[in-house]
Amino acid sequence: MRTAQPGLLQTVLAPIVFGVAVILLWQGLVTGLAIKAFILPAPFAIGAEFAGNLNNVAGGMTVTGRNSLIGLVIGAVLGIALAIVAALARLLDEMAAPIVAALSVVPIVALAPVLYTMFGAGAETARQLVAALAVFVPVYFNTLKGLRQVRPVHRDLMRAYAVTSWQATRAVTLPTALPFVFTGLRIASSLAVISALIAEYFGGPVGGLGKSITSAASSSNYGLAWAYVLGSIILGLAFYCAALIVEKLVTRRSGG
Amino acid sequence: MTDTLNVPGGDVPGGDVPGGDVPAVDVPAVNVHGVSRIFAAGKGPGVTALDDVSLDVAPGEFVSLIGPSGCGKSTLLRLIADLDVPTSGSIEVFGKPARQARIDQDYGIAFQQAGLLPWRTVAGNIELPLELHGVGKAARRGRAAELIALVGLSDFAAHYPDQLSGGMQQRVAIARALAESPSLLLMDEPFGALDEMTRERMQNELVRICAETQAAVVFVTHSIPEAVFLSNRVVVLEPRPGRIRSIVGVGLGDMSGRGEDLREDEGFFRSLSEVRDLLHGDPDSSGTGLPTGVVPKTGARGVETR
Lengths: 256, 306
Prior knowledge:
Chain A is an all-alpha fold.
């Protein structure tokens, strides 16, 4: 199915060249126009801070990454399970629809302060729950949509085979829904990181990337703040790429 | 009972008698009696897709249903398959109610769309009905290999559907329909989406497969040559409401004797024009109550007369 390879040059080299050019331009502008560090630090300075505080940044990534991952797993499991239940029971779907719709418009990180008072400011639970809630919505909606994609010809076939509804679900409904589930998970993966990180701004224990960014910025250490931002970007990308790879591996053959 | 299947039949899962359920000779494979199907249409009186249709199909017989769009030929097939329920009348398959026949897996079915599962290989797709009905792994493998050979796809067993042409996918679908050695095959325009060349080749293959399996076939089509070439009898339906206009016996001999040269046969052409005349509706002889002025052209809409 592959069309003629666009060539390594185009796929890998072009974005690298572009990225390097942007960084050089940025560096040139900051030094050339003598921009103050609190407005925009130079990329080389950020790089130096990043390399100098590698352990701290990595520690922050571990804390925030762990919260994101736990949130992602909880939210995904709940989202998929409830979508299956909703797909099987029409009534339940209709009952749940307004609640889920309401949930999807709530700025979920805004719940963080409430959750901190519920679970205590010393625990990571609130952050994990925020991530889980953020993950739940896209996973639920995409899974539910996927479960409704069974083609009429496959439905006829299952009826002709006189199989139980559980057999039909396993043979046709779930495999059909799989690509949709993974689309939901891919969207959710970066949402999990963003939500877990932003939730740190509202309180809770120190150590995560979000807390580190605010404390570095408030102590005028702008280079370091940006180094943590860089760590956040790397963490988000890692989650997204991991989800993408799993998606590609699992859904190689579906969706036809 | 002698096992007439040349294709080595594995255990028939879900069925009561291995090797097919052709009971006493006088029980028809399909018995449709006074069947009507009316589809509810909002507040209106509903659409009568079939009106008082009766039809018998003998064991081992090949019967085509042909007619213009909207004549209810696909509806009739779906009723026999118990994918839909008649508004009135009764349908029996091998002497059992259609529902029981479906539960007992007395028929195999193929649709216009191949309807393969894209995440399963060719072999996996053919094994699907066997797997769902609890046939063991080894037996499944063996049966799938036989069927893949029967439809001439041995080199493609490990391929996925999206790697196959439309004709090959349809052959997989037919192999899947044959997986449990059914004594009745239901086919709803299985070659409808194929080009003419592939279509004729598939027809030749179907004739060969039918001769080998001795299964009765109910075949929906809108192609006159296809119906005549394949069938023992061609059932011509008329639309709105769907009724049987006439049944044409095609005396072209045994399935095993049918080959490419049959398409040049004089009897072939005679049956062809007979079916064509019926489809175009001769108002004097048919007396169907169709408005006379409209009959000649519009009566055969959707039918390929080439």
